[in-house]
C-alpha cells in the first residue's frame, strides 16, 4: 500500500505508514529523499499545514496523490526550484549563445518573480476562486512555456541547451501543479 508524490514531472511512490502517523513523518521521508528542506504538500487541492495532524485526518489513504511544491527559503523571496539552472560561465561562449542564455534566464526570472508566488497564493487558499484566475494563470504559464520552447539553441551550445531544458521542466512542473489542483478541487466539488 503506497501513496504517490508528484514532484515536478516525477512521480514518487512511498509506502503508506500507519494512518495514525503524523504528517511530519511523511514530510521527513520526503525531505531525506528529495534533499529539499522547504516545501508545501498539497492533497486534494488543500495545503497540508499541520505537521502534527495524522494522515487519517488529512484523508490520506492508499492510492492518494500528494503534490510536493518547493517553497522559498525566505518569506519575501520568490519561490524557486532547487533544480534551478545555473548561469553558464561566460568563458568560451559565443555572443549568440550568451544572448540566448540571457533570454532563457530572463524568462525564468519573470515566471519566478510574478507567476510562481501567484500560483502558491492560489494553492494555499482553501477558499474557492473565480475560474478566471485559474485560466489566466494557466494561460500565462503556457505562454512562458511556448516562448521557452520556441528558443532553438544550436547543437554545439551545450550550456544553452541545458538551461532551456531545465527552464522548460520547471515551468511545466508549475503548469502540471496548477492542472492537478484544478482537477482535485473540481473532483472535491470546490471550484
UniProtKB/TrEMBL annotation:
Any Pfam family the entry gives: ubiquitin
Keywords on record: Chaperone
Gene Ontology CC, one term: cytosol
Single Gene Ontology BP annotation: protein stabilization
Gene3D superfamilies per the UniProt record, alphabetical: BAG domain (1.20.58.120), Phosphatidylinositol 3-kinase Catalytic Subunit, Chain A, domain 1 (3.10.20.90)
Keyword Chaperone among UniProt keywords: yes
GO MF terms, alphabetically ordered: adenyl-nucleotide exchange factor activity; protein-folding chaperone binding
Chaperone recorded as keyword: yes
Domain Ubiquitin-like: 1-75
InterPro entries per record: BAG_chaperone_regulator (IPR039773), BAG_dom_sf (IPR036533), BAG_domain (IPR003103), Ubiquitin-like_dom (IPR000626), Ubiquitin-like_domsf (IPR029071)
Domain called BAG: residue spans: 130-182
Annotated protein name in UniProt: BAG domain-containing protein
Source species of the chain: Ephemerocybe angulata
